[in-house]
């Protein structure tokens, strides 16, 4: 189903800004001359909402969450970056396992299912998911999809 990725992303940003913490600003930006993509909007929405919700939950007040989309020749790249608690190195290899939670989550609630779902939906859309994270610095998630 072709849809406008920019309009889609702006709507999600607006929705999640309402549940963000005090002075936690979600900054959305798109790069590219086109914005129509042919992806499953329901699967994609679930992925993006999960990743931004994690960014909100695992970072503090007075921080920025950067949400970027880019459409290049044959790829759609979506990134979500926070300046939150980060993910300990030793936990990183388990991150997509169902019910896994990193050891620095303290009393932050969660079931450990969100990323497992994102990983499965991403692969259903023939995409891939990657992340880079440093403890107490922040986390960057990237999901990349082939588009026609
Ligand atoms: P839920 O099922 O409600 O999403 P959850 O947030 O604990 O619960 P996931 O979204 O699957 O589960 O994330 C798994 C774990 O990865 C989290 O418990 C947390 O330890 C870590 N994590 C995920 N995103 C981030 C992030 N942006 N910053 C720091 N840690 C994160
Ligand atoms: Mg989560």
UniProtKB/TrEMBL annotation:
Keywords: ATP-binding, Coiled coil, Kinase, Nucleotide-binding, Phosphoprotein, Transferase, Two-component regulatory system. It comes from Mucilaginibacter ginsenosidivorax. It comes from the Bacteria. This is Sensor protein FixL. One of its GO terms (biological process) is regulation of DNA-templated transcription. The keyword ATP-binding applies. Putative oxygen sensor; modulates the activity of FixJ, a transcriptional activator of nitrogen fixation fixK gene. FixL probably acts as a kinase that phosphorylates FixJ. The keyword Coiled coil applies. GO terms for molecular function: ATP binding; phosphorelay sensor kinase activity. Residues 1-148 form the Histidine kinase domain.
